Amino acid sequence: MQATVKWMDGAMFIGESGSGHTVVMDGPEDLGGRNMGVRPMEMLLLGVGGCSIYDVISMLKKSRQKVVDCRVELQAERADAVPAVFTRINLHFVVTGEGLKESQVKRAVELSAEKYCSASIMLGAAGVEISHSHEIVEFAAA
Question: Which positions carry the signal peptide feature in this UniProt record (predicted)?
Fold first, then answer.
């Protein structure tokens, strides 16, 4: 895996993934940015969410659960000192579907947390307190 981050001006950077996708990162205006993109630490948090939700959806599909929507809501706390590292992250999954089994959703979230999500496992190993929760919403067809 590879990527490139290029400085544009002020506090703006363009990141390009090895697969050819780009993303704008920028800082707040008071630090020379123009607030035109996500902050690098926000990007890191989004990466944790993306890695985890990919695992959860993949496992639920393999177990033939009828998922119609899923989101992960991330709450993070950072240290008050420099470096302002993450100290805690909670991933709360909201899974919507038809007749979803609680045990399957719980197991998918646990497996992502304990075995598959490289991003959250890596941050946990570095001392970040990572927690997971979930809820199931029954899909009501119109």
Answer: none
Rounded (10°) CA dihedral 19, 109, 75, 70: 70
What confidence tens digit (pLDDT) does each residue in 119-142 have? Answer: 999 999 999 999 999 999 999 876
40-138 has CATH 3.30.450.20 classification: no
- d(CA 51, CA 56) in angstroms, rounded, equals 9
Which residue has tokens 């959806």?
57
Would you identify the CATH topology of the domain 1-38? N-terminal domain of TfIIb (2.20.25)
Contact 136, 102 (CB under 8 A): yes
| Signed CA dihedral, 119, 50, 39, 37: sign only | positive
